[in-house]
Amino acid sequence: MAKMLQNCGVTSLIVAMTAISFLAAVENSYDLIAIACSKTPYYQLCESTLRNDPKSWDANLNGLTLIMLNSLSFRSNRTLDAINQFLKEKPELKVPLTNCLNLYSSVVNFFIVDAIKAANRSDIPLGQEYMYDSKKSIHDCENGFKPNPSPLGVANGINSDICDIAYNMFGLMNTTLIHS
Ligand SMILES: *[C@@H]1O[C@H](CO)[C@@H](O)[C@H](O)[C@H]1NC(C)=O
Ligand SMILES: *[C@@H]1O[C@H](CO)[C@@H](O)[C@H](O)[C@H]1NC(C)=O
Ligand SMILES: *[C@@H]1O[C@H](CO)[C@@H](O)[C@H](O)[C@H]1NC(C)=O
């Protein structure tokens, strides 16, 4: 009986160790992208954005979140370029475009910069707050055109979705993905 219990203990230990190395393997594998993205509301946008960056190959969740934030920064900069272009071409939209210019400047120069620091130290509430603030700024930009059509509708939609994805990625940071 004692012998059996002892064997049982050894078996549990082996099972536990196998589970731990499996978790480590999942954490380090490319599949982390699929697992993380499946926990966000926009799987395809999430996956294509991450796989598009070669650094995602061996990144952990914090690294993947940094890649997502970098993509938001890149896309927001392109949106700023578009806003500046529209300011020349559409003087009748000067007021809402100038509003968007200010809002996107905050997103790029403050919110994303601080969200990157938050991702680097797994500060989940702060990172989520900056993603919420970024999304709100993008929506305020979009709503400023009403009742006219927005010339930034597509870009604002994608940028807002990326804020949601990054928000959810922050939420996954201190969880064991495989168990949820
Ligand atoms: C976006 O522009 C800001 C300000 O010029 C710059 O600091 C940042 O690196 C740019 N983002 C990307 C991804 O190039
Ligand atoms: C993240 O933190 C490390 C050290 O903790 C530092 O060397 C690195 O520059 C930081 N990266 C960013 C993007 O803040
Ligand atoms: C998440 O983990 C990091 C380090 O592992 C810790 O500094 C941080 O406070 C944790 N965040 C939460 C919300 O538990």
From TrEMBL:
Pfam families: PMEI (PF04043). Residues 1-25 form the signal peptide. Belongs to the PMEI family. Keywords: Disulfide bond, Signal. The keyword DNA-binding does not apply. One of its GO terms (molecular function) is enzyme inhibitor activity. NCBIfam families: PME_inhib. This is OLC1v1017756C1. Residues 28-169 form the Pectinesterase inhibitor domain. The keyword Signal applies. SUPFAM superfamilies: Plant invertase/pectin methylesterase inhibitor. Transmembrane segments: none annotated. It comes from Oldenlandia corymbosa var. corymbosa.
